[in-house]
Design goal:
Largest sheet: 7 strands, mixed
CATH topology of the largest domain: Quinone Oxidoreductase, Chain A, domain 1
Number of helices: 14
Radius of gyration: 20 Å
Strand content: 15-25%
Shape: globular
Structural class: alpha/beta
Number of strands: 18
CATH architecture of the largest domain: Alpha-Beta Complex
Helix content: 25-40%
Bound molecules: zinc ion
Number of domains: 2
CATH class of the largest domain: Alpha Beta
Length: 376
């Protein structure tokens, strides 16, 4: 089979690898239908995720069809069409019993990290019964794909950890895919304002399209002043940092109001300072974590009910074997106006919407990719 393999900082190849085989009795083998790139994959590519070793197949978000099941798997069968979430979990260890699937003794974020991932034609997924989710019949697969990581991350790590509530002024710093997913999820809880902060005009446009009420371009460093103006000098009720950098975390600490709740969704590759000598008088809380993906069933229900359509997070579509072009494009996300990039293995059993439009985007994507290939 073909797979996207990490060979050390800056080096990835699309190469032939042996098709995975069942390891443990609770494993399944899946044939990947759709997968996508994540900001985390770029962090890996920069060498910023030390647990990912050379030789690793990347990718931790996919929809797929089960082609083989281990003898201990009881809830899934060959042919089932599933979401493969970024977090897998045994369902039985002390952490899992508390719902902390990301801290599972036998799981957590492993695929595309400490074990081979899903940017491939096939993958072996552990703890299938307690990790996978069936895609409801008739649901658009691209919508389901957005539940493999970014929407649960925005909801669980951003919105729920920061306890967004009715009437809150919520500031989301960073309008990349996860920041945008956070903006989508924040709307479930009725905040009065959702303020998106970024330095990229296209991303801010996307933020407004997806439900932000105010967009602040912080290219000139005016976000702090503007947010204090918006809140009458009091600061925001909720600040969700969705980049993972020191300057944006500093900004978050300057704009949080009394009783404010902060959440880090961004992935920090080094430690940053918390100004507790200032923040303690403001009674703030700060939370962070890895997504447990236990919100996936609820999010599936919201999609089925027509209350959520996460396809607005998708900017590009490519064939799976064009993944290297997709990485090139994603590396220049601002210039290329890239948000989520869907990689399609051409195995999708069902698609409820816009087949024609998708086909056109797909062809345009291929043409652009081939032109780029010639230019390079
Ligand atoms: Zn991801
Ligand atoms: Zn566990």
């Amino acid at each position: 089979m073909k797979a996207l393999v990490y060979h050390g900082p800056g080096e990835i190849t699309w190469e032939e690898r042996p098709r995975p085989v069942l390891g443990e009795a609770s494993d399944v083998i899946v044939e990947i239908s759709k997968t996508t790139l994540c900001g985390t994959d770029l962090a890996i590519l920069k060498g910023g995720v030390s647990t990912v070793k050379p030789g690793r197949i990347l990718g931790h978000e996919a929809t797929a069809r089960i082609v083989e099941v281990g003898p201990a798997v009881s809830d899934f069968a060959v042919g089932d069409h599933v979401i493969v979430p970024c977090t897998t979990s045994c369902g039985r260890c002390p952490a899992c019993r508390k719902g902390l699937f990301s801290s599972c003794d036998r799981g957590g974020w492993q695929i595309g990290n400490t074990r081979d991932g899903v940017q491939a034609e096939f993958a072996c997924i552990p703890c299938a019964d307690s990790s996978l989710h069936k895609i409801p019949k008739g649901m658009d697969e691209e919508a389901a794909l957005m539940l493999a990581d970014i929407l649960p991350t925005g909801l669980e790590v951003g919105v729920q950890k920061a306890d967004v509530g009715l009437g809150d002024v919520v500031v989301v710093i960073g309008a990349g895919p996860v920041g945008l997913a956070t903006i989508v999820a924040a709307q479930f809880y009725g905040p009065s304002q959702i303020v998106a902060v970024d330095r990229d005009a296209h991303r801010l446009e996307a933020a407004l399209r997806l439900g932000a009420t105010i967009a602040i371009d912080n290219t000139d460093g005016s976000a702090e002043k503007q947010i204090l103006e918006i809140t009458g000098g009091r600061g925001a009720d909720v600040v969700i940092e969705a980049i993972g950098s020191t300057p944006t975390f500093e900004l978050a600490q300057r704009i949080i109001g009394a009783g404010g709740r902060m959440a880090n969704v961004g992935i920090f590759s080094k430690s940053t300072e918390i100004h507790n000598h200032v923040l303690w008088t403001r009674n703030i809380s700060l939370k962070m974590g890895v997504v447990n993906t236990n919100s996936i069933p609820v999010l599936l229900r919201m999609i089925e009910a027509g209350r959520l359509d996460p396809r607005g997070l998708i900017s590009h579509r490519f064939a799976l074997d064009e993944i290297l072009h997709a990485y090139d494009l994603f590396k220049n996300a601002a210039r290329e106006q890239a948000l989520k990039i869907v990689l399609d293995a051409g195995k999708s059993p069902v698609s409820a919407i816009g087949e024609e439009e998708k086909q056109i985007q797909f062809i345009v994507g291929r043409v652009l990719a081939s032109l780029k290939g010639e230019a390079a």
